[in-house]
Amino acid sequence: MATELSVRGKNEFEDLIRALEWSSEFAIYFAVVNPPLIRKQMAEELKGSLEKEKIQVHSLELNSSYFDLLSIIPEKVPSYCLRGTETVIRSVVFIFGAEEAIASDVDTRRLFFDCLNWQRDKLRENIACPLVIWLPEFALRILALETPDFWAWRSGVYYLEPEPVGILRDTQELLNVGTSEYVDLTYQEKIKRLQQFKALLEDYERQPFENESETELLGIRFNLLHYAGLVSFHLANYKDAKQYLLQGLKMAELLKDKELFFLSFLGLSAVSKYQGDYTCAEEYTKKALQIIQDIGDKSRIAPIFGLLGNYASLQKDYNKAKDFFKKELEIGKELGNNELIASALGELGVLAKKQEKYTESMSLLEQSLKINVEIGDKEEIVINLIELSYLAKSQGNFNEAVRRIEEAHVISTEIKDHRITAKVLEVQGSLARDQGDYLRARRYYEESLVIYKSLGYKFNIADVYGDLGSIASDSSDYEEAKRRYKESLKLFEEIGAKDRIALTQELFENVEKLKKLDPALEQERQEQK
Questions:
Q1: CA 225 to CA 229: how far, in whole Å?
Q2: What is the DSSP string of 179-217?
Q3: Domain boundaries, the chain
Q4: Has domain 457-529 been given CATH number 1.20.58?
Q5: Does the pTM of the predicted model rise above 0.70?
Q6: Which CATH class is domain 7-162?
Q7: What is the pLDDT of residues 313-353, one digit of tens each?
Q8: How far is CA 99 from CA 26, 170, 194, 304, in A?
Q9: In terms of CB atoms within 10 Å, which end of the chain has fewer, N or C?
């Protein structure tokens, strides 16, 4: 056996092989393996064993938007797997990805569970071969609880428990991915990665890793918790993200590792920001600052001052924000680090714009842009151009605003950064709306919405729903405005963004008032004519 299983795991694997060799009719089997790579390896080994016995194996991959077994199986497997065909070929269908459907939003998850319960009889009527559903243990527990009708028809549950060395190997391979990659994963990929982390965490909480040091195991658990927190953050599941990061913080405390404390506090700071709790975000950032100052790495101290400046700015304490940005700039100049200098100048430029110091803002943003052009940082160039577009718009110079954002659009397309492209489209939509071109504005917003949905950026999705609501309100389409604001409000409530909930609720209430006022205003206009 290529993958080492525990004694129990080997016995269960052999039992599963025998069950499938004997089974020639519809049946539902569950193969339970937590480590995702080992799950795939065991599936391949089982497939090889079955094909030696002249049993054909076919595989299906479910996800959070593709889970209707009754439709998928007839579409994806040969006809001999279905009832009513003359050709008799023994076969088995492997089903992967149920844990991803379970991890989707509340409405989709409920639909998946309902499909399994309602379709149980239809599956047996239409499918002529056994199904093997591969999934981690936590997903099996949820499935058993939420789909009692489907679960009642199980023919067997097999726990293919690996040896600790296999779990360690699987974990290391999964963790050999830079954290920056999680930003660019699609929504489906993020869900899949999160479920992999959750499955491995369960193994580390109960497996006896007798030959590994406690320090190494705590470090692995920290990484799994931290990465699960980051993926949850990028899925805008802020409550879950905070729980993972707080659990990771406990590992950091046990290890007494400053670097891990630093990473935890930064992660918790970002979560608090998106939940609208800027005070808490600032507190976590100050803790991160204290740690990195103790370590003495000035190249990492400077960006923390930048974060503190942003939080002060969000709380409209502009003098305090300016002091933090200046500290970031001083360190950048001291180190001769052009990236830090450009970042600080850009942040000071945005701050000056907020204070309506437009000449100063233009100068600072242009300086930042010049440096970013020199060092070839195209992502930061686009950000500079977006801010210069906002600045031009603030001054009523729409031609310049459009010119800047069109330049940003060209560069964002070149670098193929979907996040940045979506942001540029948002700005283009905002400019079109301000110019009264609602049709074009709606088109830009809808394009950005497609991208944000593909990435699973719920916060941005909610923002765009709100923008579409504002366009509808401007166009006196109050029912559409209410619908869009409701969509926005639902998402902001789901992710717990306190400030955005209040703002969106206010916009929704204003639409109600406008709807009541509009007939009276129209009558008044007619009377004046």
A1: 6
A2: TTHHHHS-HHHHHHHHHHHHHHHHHHHH---TTS-HHHH
A3: 7-162, 398-455, 457-529
A4: yes
A5: yes
A6: alpha beta
A7: 999 999 999 999 999 999 999 999 999 999 999 999 999 99
A8: 22, 18, 10, 37
A9: C
